[in-house]
Amino acid sequence: MVTKTEEFIAKTFMAMADGLAMGTIGPRPKIALTGMGSELGENNVLAGALLAAQKGVDVSYIGTQEHDGLRTVFAADAQEGHRKMEAMLEAHEVDGAVTMHFPFPIGISTIARVVTPARGRQMFIAAATGTAGTDRVESMIRNALYGVITAKACGIFRPSVGILNIDGARQAERALRELAANGYDLRFAESSRADGGSVMRGNDVLQGTPDVLVTDSLTGNVLTKMLASYTTGGIFEAMGFGYGPGIGEGYDKLILIVSRVSGAPVIAQAIAYAAELIRGQVFQVGAREFAAARKAGLAAVIEKYKTVVRGSDGETAAPPKEVVTAQLVGIEIMDLEAAVKLLWKQGMYAESGMGCTGPVIRIAENNAAAARMILQQKGYLA
Q: Which catalytic residues are annotated (predicted)?
């Protein structure tokens, strides 16, 4: 006859065996998911949540529908959904969140995770949304660091880093090699092409040559979309893990991005990606990597290699802070800092940010029209 103690032990070992098989040993991560705004409908997002819940994640679904096995937090629209998501993160009701079209502050970029078609390798694209800095080369240097942090949190001990062959690639490469020479542990990938090198070609993107592919966020966004939806003609993202977590120094909210055309499989993978980052202690990994990079002279290296931003004025002080709910779009990334400071000079509090379609200036609703006129007159907006 089986005793209650033996039954308990048997159930415990079965749970451990299931956890090892599914990679879910330890507390179940709690992830919030917003469902409004998808071009494929809320049912598609809900289906992704259910797939993730079956894999051992506690999902809080923020939307208008409910389903057994999911905690539902009702919200009428995407704006209310974001407010409730951020409140849940602040209150530590959830460990992380997955959402669409979230405007990260400048200094934060997201690290996408894709499956490359030639060999089925996973690759991190640094970055896919957001922007790590207002300077192109500075952004790529920081993106490399953010990609390394994310890859390490996902279990890659020494990820290889390659730089996509775009404007600024050679400056970014020199800067990263100088950082490595100063003592920061950085392993460079080698191109699959005959002439080699750590600057990656299109062939390397398809093959997944590096663990971390460094690029600017707009190029990375296009690459992520293509690798996610090339099998569907671009109307439905069927592969990969979405656009990834917002990473940046001092940023301690785990928010991952999916597209408004991400299918249920991608949404489920994005939630699993968030859970993996929680288990991999991404913020602790980030703290160690940032400390090591600073020790190797990160600030001096960035200052040495970054380009000059048009019209920037480091002495312009910000007016008193206001609630900024309006967004001005259409700003060139290289002009973003100068445009914000121009508004400060006019007594208008403004913040820079990055949405899914590019840079934004965030400003109070009552100042939005006047700010747009000023920026148009100075040539920052069409």
A: 356
